[in-house]
Amino acid sequence: MSTARFYHAGCSVCISAEQTLLNLLDPALKVEVVHLGEQPQRIAEAELAGVKSVPAFVHDDQVLHLNFGASIDDLK
Amino acid sequence: MSTARFYHAGCSVCISAEQTLLNLLDPALKVEVVHLGEQPQRIAEAELAGVKSVPAFVHDDQVLHLNFGASIDDLK
Prior knowledge:
In chain A, about 25% of the residues lie in helices and about 40% in strands. By secondary structure, chain A is an alpha+beta fold. Chain A has a single domain, classed as Glutaredoxin, CATH 3.40.30.
């Protein structure tokens, strides 16, 4: 099972979604958590993956936008 | 691990989110998939759980709205 990425920006919506989702995922799945507020150099990578807002979960070119914390444009 | 519910309405956004998410969840988690288009009598239950749009995933009073397929108001 490949690695997934969870992009967030530290907002309360992000943290809540992270806690809900990550606890329920298959323990065999590796998830890299990327804080775009702290790692703005990775915003371009997130956009390329199709991320429009955070929190977002990316796996195998599939993007799940979870609730709505912030637009990725607002993180730039 | 308690049961989760995945509410959808058969739309392409719903099906795509379902395939992405359900494959990655912990195999120990039971997920009831509820098609609100086919079971409109369960719309009230979904709303009570906090579902505003589908697809949505509910677990332990936490709601994750995944991408955006349709507003729950449009399913009534």
